[in-house]
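Review form for a predicted model. The reviewer records the input and the model, then writes brief findings.
Reviewer: anonymous (R2)
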Amino acid sequence: MNSGITHSTLKNIIHETVKDNLLSTVILIASGFDMTVSEFLDSNLFL
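Model under review:
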């Protein structure tokens, strides 16, 4: 909710039905978690 992206967009990302995630979407998601993009991408989830 805090990110401003739609539920369907987030669902598609989680279920890997999106072939090309836009940087703008990543920025919005990171912002929704009150993180910078670097902090978000440095998460252990992406290791």
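Findings: The first helix runs from residue 7 to 14.
Further findings: Residues 7-46 form one domain.
Recommendation: see findings above.
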